[in-house]
Amino acid sequence: MITVKRSHFASRFGNATSIAALAIVLVAAPAAAQVQPPAGDVPATATGPGSTTPDTSITPADQASEQAPVAGSDIIVTGSRITASGFNAPTPTTVVGEEQIARNAQPNIFNTIAQLPSLQGSTGAATGTFSTSSGTQGLSSFSLRGLGTIRTLTLLDGQRVVGANVTGVPDISQFPQLLIKRVDIVTGGASASYGSDAVGGVINFVTDTRFEGFKANAQTGVTTYGDGGQVLLQAAAGHAFADDRLHLVVSTEYAKDQGVGPGDFGEDLAGSRDWYRATTLVDTGIRNNGNPQFLYRDHGQAYQYTKYGLISAGPLQGTAFDANGNPVPFNYGSNGVPSKTAGGSVIGCYVGFCVGGDQSGHVGSGTSLQSGLERINAYTRVGFDVTPDMEFYVTANIAQVKSNNQPNPGAARTGLTIQCANPYLPASIAAGCAANNITSFSYGLSNAILPNIKVNTDRRQYRFVGGLKGKADLFGDDWTYDLYYEHGINITDINVDNISINRRYDQAINAVRLNGEIVCANPVARAQGCRPINIFGNFQPSPEALAYIVPENGPFQHTRQTQDAAGASISGTPVDLWAGPLAIAMGVEYRKEAYRVRADPYGAGVTDLSPNSALYPADPILNATDGSNWYAGNYKNGRGKYDVVESFVELNLPLLDSAALGKANVNVAGRSTRYSTSGVIYAWKIGGTWETPIDGFRLRAVTSRDVRAPNLSELFAAPVTTTVPNFTDPRPTAANPNGQQVLIIQNTIGNAALRPETARSTELGAVLSQPSWAPGLSLSFDYYKIKVKDVVSSLSAQQIVNLCVVSNIPDTCGAFNLDGDSKFVNVQSFNLASIDTDGFDIEASYQWRNPLSLGGSFTMRALATHVIKFVTDPGLPGTVPVDTAGANSGATPDWKLLAIQTYENDKFNLTLQQRWFSNGVIGNQYVVCDPGTCPVSTTANPTIDYNRMKGAFYFDIGGGVNVTKEVSMYFKVDNLFDHDPEPSPQTNTGLDVNPALYDTLGRIYRVGVRARF
Questions:
Q1: Is 686 in contact with 702 (CB distance < 8 Å)?
Q2: Could you tell me the residue ranges of all domains in the chain?
Q3: How far is CA 254 from CA 107, 218, 220, 334, 376, in A?
Q4: What's the whole-model pTM score?
Q5: Nearest-5° angle of CA 915, CA 917, CA 923?
Q6: Contact criterion met (CB below 8 Å) for 144 and 184
Q7: Which of 548, 579, 773, 859 has its CA 20 to 30 A from that of 1010?
Q8: pLDDT in tens, 86-130
Q9: 389-432: per-residue pLDDT in tens?
Q10: In angstroms, rounded to a whole number, what is the distance separating the alpha carbons of residues 282 and 349?
Q11: How far is the C-alpha of 987 from the C-alpha of 961, rounded, in Å?
Q12: Residue 781 CA, distance from chain mean position
């Protein structure tokens, strides 16, 4: 970490009063270390000299309430473990300060940090809402460089945090947010300094450990559509006792976000939002006639099911049922005509889809646009100065985060076999069966008669840290030391409501008339409480029938994760060399991660039901051995653990200190890590900075080898079984030469033989910081290149099948079986892929004091990231690497920009913010061509008629008024112009939008009040 020692500043600048004021003078200056601070003795809360851009929003008034740190403490900016005065780390670090966080007025600090351009692919309340079984709903976690949340190391005060998911990523919602005084974002590999997972970089939340006084914040908000209501209440207090030796800091907060959505069947979204058009990439199934294989079309419609039911194959194909159960001809769209064959194809339509027609059966619009989120957080820190240079401290952080979402309405089923003797069928259908000499037919419906699925997630964190830090005189020099032990527990409970059991549903729809009464055909099912249901129209099941199909106790998963971490490190300057002191940091660390998960017996497959027999009674209809009886949410039992022992050393060697040539240094680090699962692996870095003789101009460069060990989920994942409707079986048949849509079971399992990933990261940068000819100006440019090898990844179920059937690669043929009644595909992780990405960051800021003699200050800050390429190679024979840079259906647009302009004085402040990313494509693999001009379409490079996705520009405005010296009121409007998201077309009928990039909620209003005493 980059540190400015207080004692060094005192000796260099005399009796300086404000290191904090130094940050003000720097005004977002990238890594300017040698700037004369103004008078004062108030410590900085923002940045040290190694930062790329200190917080532009810090003002002298903000610093006045900060308390001086304990003697011997340092102001550290994440990026290195070196704590030597005047040291400039070669790794770029962006800093977001307390005031900037406050002015963005978000209900969760996660939302503010995720807006930075270098963060790509982060997950939050608006992502994953379509999911039932992932366990990531409502999980706020960061992804740097688009490399995924598992390759970004998130720290709290430089220490690890227990994961809120078995992937190991923490939940930012569980952090003590009101006490965060800044966030450091290290945009580069940092494994040698900080350990595993820091492939994309490090995000470190720094708390105010010496806060004194009281502060509070109350905020509320709502969207322009009248939904998404938000409430946020925060309070923090701090006080010093025992002659300023005992320091107590506490905080608490409560936040509730109602979420947005869901909509309904069809194309109706929540509120009056009207941008959903069921945009679909329909597959013509033709690859070599000169026409595009895929067509971009709005109002795509699957032709295997409808809202209230559709006969999907055979001589009666095309007969739908209205709400009253009357048979009606189905309007397929595309002028489609049912083939009335056993395969159920539709003449004039495409593979699985038509365009237009009856849109009532869509389920995508019924997905929550944002999960509801409720969080409670309590935090306390007690620090005692054993001596003026030694502090013993303990912290406790207890937090609970609840989320809820609706994946989709109903529970769509396709390929059902309905007997013509079913007594609920209208007489005309029974007569049609007789006329065509059939006894059954294929059927599909959205199941609007069933209650909508609800996923409820409850995460509880218990984190405790004890430590000792300070300074000691060794060999005539001050050495800083830090020892700590952390114990964290995260308990996650997932409960799914209103979900059906497939086998019971199948029994309930198979009705017969017995002794004049309609009953379930299977006597065993009848004995277990089966009651028949009418699925030919909008006929609500009886309470008894619903209780059988959708029991009150649905799927659940209880996960307990623990993390024990300990570390000891020292840093000092033992030798004075020709150009300055040699600085060294070294340490050892230990970490143990473990998890245990328990699931319900119907999903997990437990033959001994005695512990849960009251909630989940034995039922011979169900699969007791393998489980997977639910429509979705088939969680499994499992456990796993590993431990890690690490040691590291980092050196900073000054090379040059000359008035004529400037200053230069070399920074090197190495880390040895032993994983109990995979053995020893090494990480290293070497870099340097050159502060040139040119006024304010500095160069920096660093290259590193970084590592990421497989997480608990990848190594020991409890098998997860998911029902996947509308899966494409690409094998040709006589009835369906282009394949057919089937329902499969997808089994996701772990792999204990995985190896750590390794990455090579290189960064080259230039910084112009506070030149004499423009003292308020700071600019930086940094090029980065990251190559990750042995990437732990898995192919999708569709890829696995296509590689075997279409590409004739036998490696994947043993992972699935699409014949018989139990169709399945096994999905497992392997060290088979690689990621190669490069691009550059640009950061600029300028502060104008007393603009136009109006008083106050005007600050501008802009950050931009350009992704040149992001190539993922699946690593299997016959597969082709895919470049997703500029694919706006993913997480890495070509350009991403955040710009902020703020004017403030003693009475008020006004902030304008712009968020923008560039136009892009659906996918770079597609070949765009006009009809009659297309080459042969292949799996690697399919042809398409349209391959564009517009970017987006969001304009935000906020401001505040100082009512008194202690109290202020503020407002914020996000997405002022209510910009709608661009469709992200899929080859299914899910919600066609990419919430990782696009705002799906629309304009949001927030108001609040802050107090500080």
A1: yes
A2: 711-753+795-828
A3: 10, 10, 12, 52, 5
A4: 0.87
A5: 150
A6: no
A7: 859
A8: 667 899 999 999 999 999 999 999 999 999 999 999 999 999 888
A9: 999 999 999 999 999 999 988 899 999 999 999 999 999 999 99
A10: 9
A11: 50
A12: 27
